[in-house]
Amino acid sequence: MKGEKATIRKQQNAPPPDDDGDKRLSRPAHALTIDQIIEEIKTCPINGLLEDEARERLERFGRNEFQSSKGVSAAEVLVRQLVNPMTLVLVMAMAASLAIRSWVEGVFVASVILLNAVVGFFQEYKAAKIIDSLRELASPTAKAIRSGRDVVVPSPEIVPGDVVDMNVGDTIPADVRLIETMNFEINESLLTGESAPVQKTAAATFADDTGLGDRLNVAFGSCKVTRGRARGVVYATGGFMEIGLIATAVEQRGHYKRRIAPPRRLSEIAGPADVRFCGPLRSSILTEVQAALGGVGRFLGLNVGTPLQRKLSRLAAYLFGCAVACTIIVLAANQFRSQREVVLYAVATGLSMLPVSLIVILTVTMGAGSKKMAQRNVLVRNLKSVEALGSVTDICSDKTGTLTQGRMVARAAWIPHHGTYFVSPTNDPLNPTTGETHFLRGEPRHASPLGGRDSAAATAAKTSLVDPTPEAELWESVRDFVVTASLASIGKVSRNKGRWVVVGNPTDVAIQIFAHRFTSPDDHDSSSSSSPYFPTTANVGHEAINELPFDFYNKRMSLVYQELGSPNLRIFTKGAVETVLSLCTRTVSGSDGTTAPLDSPAIASILANTEALARRGLRVLALASRTVTNLTPSDAHLSNRPQIEQSMTFHGLIGLNDPPRPESTASVRLCHTAGIAVHMLTGDHLETARAIATEIGILRPHHDTPTAAVLTSRDFDALSDAALDALPALPLVIARCTPQTKVRMMDALHRRGRFAAMTGDGVNDAPSLARADVAIAMGGGSDVAKEAADIVLRDDNFASIGNAVEEGRRMFDNVQRFVLHVLAENVAQACTLLVGLVFKDEEKGLSLFPLSPVEILWVIVATSGLPDMGLGFEEAAEDVMRRPPQDIRKGIFTQELLLDMVVYGLVMAALCLSSFALVLYGFEGGRVGEDCNNAYSEACGPVFRARATCFTCLTWFALFLALEMTDMRQSLFRLSPRHRQDMDWRSARWLYNVVVRRNRFLFWAVVGGFVTVFPVLYLPVVNRVVFKHEGITWEWGIVLVETLLFFLSVEGWKWAKRVHRRRKRRRGSNEV
């Protein structure tokens, strides 16, 4: 109904109501109470919007974007295809052809320009769209509650009425009216110019005309959360946010581009002593020269793009120099005569050295690789990381949620002088009524010393099932433990229409679920409860006052409550055992809740039981509380934390299990096989970290682990840089890890010449991510971490890092493949054309060209662009993750690639020249007509047929070399197909499975180039007038023999490389 539709508009500058009955808020959001804003927006503060309602509001109000994304411009891509160095060279060649009235050649070059531009445009535009869409996927996200569930929503899909949670490091997705806050501060300098963070409160309301900086119950979109947490209701999105209104006003006024200052000062160019004598004129000249050089560099691609793109642009510049040199050699060999055919041949020889579509192919390859990574849950934010992934030697990974499932389950709890509770495994860990609770009258250290993550359940099997008798009400120590556990956690557990709904971080939720096991049966199905009777945490008589949040240095969090009907404050704390114990002066000493001083024997007992639980793979937290009579609620703020967290009573330990992901063990093993060291940097207890690391294979379970392989952050940070560098190997596991420890770890890896990747999800991880060679953020992490990252894992899964490394290596191999193909073809063409100058027309004294200019251009078009693009789509080699990482310093231009380039190029050139010489001099007796470089005559028939034979050989060799490049060492005839049963190369299915199915794009590109030879050979006019060759007959025998020799040469060279590598490995193993 129209009256029920929620309209959430800004009171100021809001558009008039729509015809469908939408209405504005009755007052500005900061002037409305919490109940009023919820009522007017028609949302639920607990369950949020329904999914269907959220979709309907997204359609009605539009995406949460205050300015349309520029996206990919087709015009810009087209301009890049037409205005670039390679196209400019082709235009110059066309102009030279037309200037000397070589219309056929000029038109053909124009056709090449057009074809290259069209193909390049569609391929690059498609790749750019892919990359742009992936960047959108990696854009900031928001944590919203929809249909009672926590969901992560891309910020552009947030709608008015969404209930969102905001934590430290998050970017606020839209303008939000706060309904809950805990020490919540945001940086509003984006709007107000004030650099100091502003503390917010939810309960207050303000006058309608209150200024932006004084609206303390509102959080503005695009601002950063600097402290605490909050929940709020979105009331303005897109252009109706405060930041959106400013952006709209700026766009309406128009904007201008100011001149960008030169990147370096004059004093850095001329030196301090020269600046005094530099007048304004000289300064202006130097500035203009520098700007001009920068513009030339950008045009040539020398100072823009990724490192690999810049490197290939430099390669193209070098090849351009080689092209100029080749042109001069051709002219010099013909005494610099100005005959048309000489000029055309010189220009064509120069063009043969240029990788016309190399950068486009690289862009397409990287775009396709980024799309493939996205399909494997890896979003690329920075293309340079795609190049770098193949060189990663070390991965520093967090544990929780990355190597493990991130689904915490409370599996054990120890209450001093009472006993230990164990929870059996369950298929529904979010349901507190499933699974059995067992009780052991004793301490965890006295239980059976079982290993593995299921040891708690195995111990529980030897204990008694908890009996829910009224005597349970006498267990005051258990009551205190449960209340402390529940009120020290901010997670929420509720039942909605028969389904358990949880809200909060995994640790808090797990503790709350454990506490709910000790609630009254009346709160659950009576048939499913098997726990003692205790009041629910909802009616224990406490009102939340403030939160002292967890941070990586204190490693604890406390919540402050007011006892209802009493002036006393209650403090409930949970955190790392060591830090919580440092706050305690007393401990529980009996089941009746009595306490005793926390002396040395008690501390020793606590630490021993902590070790016992940790050895079972459990994350151990301590629980403590305190009743305060000398503080008021106004004193319970963060600055008084030392006075609040003191003289506490220790209530016990709770052990949580975050089981490893099923795929983590295989992924770690794969990294080790690939020569990548995996380091686990976690905030967990030392023994917990050791147990998990052993289980997933970071530590070898059946080998003695060096002491330095597992350290705490305290031990690690106590070592000097020199001591760290003196270690045989850096630690594989660092427990109780802090952000500063991660930074030192990254620096230590760099000093050893390692190329490292680092994972992170929190604000404090940003420094270490900035230090990493490849920064990896978790998809569910903070926006600060994502902005500092190169790639984002959508599923927070360590296995996805392995997938990213594999994809990075595949792309590295593919770039090597098509670069080698391009360079080998360039060498072949250059040698054929330059050595072919020795064939002379004795009457005119000019060279007899083995290839005509149009033939040269046709070979470039038919054998380079599409086949090289197909090589960029090649699947990963079978051994891609069995090889050590690539050397980032050498890049793609390895010694093997350079040697292959020379060998393949010389082989192709020698075979092409021999085919020309065999036809003309071997079978035709060297009969050369007059002016055979220009026109056909009967006397020129042998020359035209020899040229056709050479052209066919070069075209086929270049195409077949692309097939051979699918593996730089393995034989083309022994490539493993996707199905093992088809590995026999003699099988009739071999050609289809190995050559066709392996890479369909490459196969059809080769087939297309292969068949184009026939029409250009036999079509009248096209053959003699345009291509300057003649259809061949018996010469096909020479072509086939030369093709056989080509395959034998290439396969022989690959065989020699394999033999060399086997002998090298054998020598290495013998030395070891």
Automatic annotation (TrEMBL):
Pfam families: Cation_ATPase (PF13246), Cation_ATPase_C (PF00689), Cation_ATPase_N (PF00690), E1-E2_ATPase (PF00122). One of its GO terms (molecular function) is metal ion binding. GO terms for biological process: potassium ion transport. Residues 28-102 form the Cation-transporting P-type ATPase N-terminal domain. The keyword Ion transport applies. Its main location: membrane. The keyword Protease does not apply. GO terms for cellular component: plasma membrane. This is P-type Na(+) transporter. The lineage of its organism: Eukaryota, Fungi, Dikarya, Ascomycota, Pezizomycotina.
